[in-house]
Amino acid sequence: MIFICVKWTVKPEYADDWIxxxxxxxxxxRAEPGNLFFEWSRSVEDPNQYVLIEAFREDAAEAHVTSDHxxxxxxxxxxxxxxxxxxxxxxxxxxxxxxxxxFRVD
Length: 106
What we know:
single chain, alpha+beta, 5 helices
C-alpha cells in the first residue's frame, strides 16, 4: 500500500470548520475503489493543525490524484491555508494496520 501522512496547517479563522470544509473531498476519496483509509485528526498541541493519514492500494494512486474531486480540492482548499501542507509517504507491504506489540492487550 501507499501510506501517506500530511500535516495541514489551517488559517485560524477556518480551523474549527476544517472538517466540514474538506467533507466533499473526504467522502469522495473514501468512496474510491483503491482507498484503504482516509482519516483526519486534530493536533492536541496546535489547534490550527490537522493530520491526515491515508492509504491506497498501489495501483490506485494515479486515479486518486487525477480524480475530479482531487482537482476540486486543489483549487478550493489552498485559500484556507497559510502554508503548503507537509507530507511523508512510503510504499509498504500489506493493506492493514498491525498490532502494537509493545502495548499488547490480553
